[in-house]
Amino acid sequence: APAPVPVSADVAFAKGGRMLLVEDDASVAAVALDLLESFGLEVVLAESGPDALKALQSARFDIMLTDIVMPGGMSGVDLARQAARDWPDMRIALTSGYVGDDVDQVLADTPWPFLRKPYSTEQLRSIIDGRASLPAE
């Protein structure tokens, strides 16, 4: 039998995969949007946890990539926990440009993959493909 062919993000999301990108830094969001749309994703941008929850309540998303540290009184981890509870079928990944014990401590308690900014195209694709590992040391 022929070996199974791995499904790329382009194929997986050719049927209109939708991503919610939660990012308060406009320049980071612009770069990420370009990359994600080049993968064939439909991307909706939210700038805070409360904005993201509004978007989640109004449409269905396949995956959410959220910054951990954001304005609006709700962290990305808080958002991810609520989203995982309310939308259990949606994949979730976290991202942050901050380094240090605070972020490491927060990540130690989370089951979601983590991307450290600035991330590469390949790292982003691995998250989309579902090949990403859990938070790396």
Descriptive labels:
alpha/beta, 6 helices, 40% helix, Rossmann fold
Structural Rg = 15 Å
Average pLDDT across residues? 84
- In whole angstroms, the N-to-C terminal distance is 38 Å
State the helical fraction: 40-55%
CATH-defined architecture: 3-Layer(aba) Sandwich
Return the CATH class: Alpha Beta
Which sheet architecture does the biggest sheet show?
5 strands, parallel
As for the number of domains, it is 1
Structural class: alpha/beta
Please characterize this protein's 3D structure.
This protein is an alpha/beta fold and 137 residues long. It has one domain (15-129): Response regulator (Rossmann fold, 3-Layer(aba) Sandwich), CATH 3.40.50.2300. Helices cover 40% and strands 18% of the residues. It has six helices and five strands; from the N terminus they run H-E-H-E-H-E-H-E-H-E-H. A five-stranded parallel sheet has the order 2-1-3-4-5, sandwiched between helices. Helix 5 (101-108) links the parallel strand 4 and strand 5 (114-116). Helix 3 (49-58) packs parallel to helix 4 (76-86). The radius of gyration is 15 Å and the shape is globular. Mean pLDDT is 84; it is low at 5-15.
SSE map:
Blueprint: H1 9-12, E1 18-22, H2 26-38, E2 42-46, H3 49-58, E3 63-67, H4 76-86, E4 91-96, H5 101-108, E5 114-116, H6 121-129
Parallel strand pairs: 1-2, 1-3, 3-4, 4-5
What is this entry, summarized?
By secondary structure, the protein is of the alpha/beta class. The protein has helices at residues 9-12, 26-38, 49-58, 76-86, 101-108, 121-129, and strands at residues 18-22, 42-46, 63-67, 91-96, 114-116. The termini are far apart.
